[in-house]
């Protein structure tokens, strides 16, 4: 088997295979977790958005959404939940393949940038992102809170084009944790 895996190692985008997606973590507890067809529908939309906006896991050289379908990593990928207290907000929780994944902060920021500003595509005013099960998730998630407070559901690519800088509110974003 190659590092990229063969097609037999992947579920289909139309399948919701409970055993091949991560359990929900703390960020999604008490929220309306998307299951079955709701999860599949949002994940398919995410696949298209991530393809357009180039959110790729460079270790495996594929669109990050494919991680949810990779049976070799059943505890990794994204889970989604509608926020029970903030209408129009979706919570997305990323579980990396390893506790020390060096791309976790980059993938979280890339996902935030890809989703936000596209409510007409996915139906949510804002998508908030957190990282679960990572040795540095507290620091990464604090940075995600900062970026959310600053930009909310804005299209961050438009903010950057207008002279803003979503990649670094204080110089730490580009450097990582």
Automatic annotation (TrEMBL):
It comes from the Archaea. Residues 9-152 form the DUF7998 domain. Residues 150-177 are annotated as: Disordered. Pfam families: DUF7998. InterPro entries: DUF7998. This is DUF7998 domain-containing protein. It comes from Halorutilus salinus.
């Amino acid at each position: 088997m190659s590092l990229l895996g063969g097609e037999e190692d992947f579920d289909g985008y139309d399948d919701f295979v409970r055993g091949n997606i991560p359990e929900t973590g703390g960020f999604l507890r008490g929220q309306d977790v998307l299951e079955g067809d709701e999860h599949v529908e949002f994940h398919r939309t995410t696949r298209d958005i991530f393809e357009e906006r180039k959110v790729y896991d460079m270790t495996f050289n594929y669109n990050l959404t494919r991680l949810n379908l990779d049976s070799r990593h059943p505890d990794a990928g994204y889970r989604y939940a509608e926020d029970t207290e903030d209408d129009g907000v979706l919570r997305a929780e990323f579980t990396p393949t390893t506790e020390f994944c060096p791309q976790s902060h980059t993938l979280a920021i890339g996902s935030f940038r890809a989703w936000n500003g596209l409510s007409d595509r996915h139906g949510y005013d804002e998508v908030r992102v957190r990282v679960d099960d990572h040795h540095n998730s507290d620091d990464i998630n604090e940075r995600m809170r900062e970026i959310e407070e600053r930009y909310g559901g804005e299209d961050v690519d438009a903010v950057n084009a207008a002279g803003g800088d979503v990649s670094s509110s204080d110089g730490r974003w580009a450097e990582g944790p």
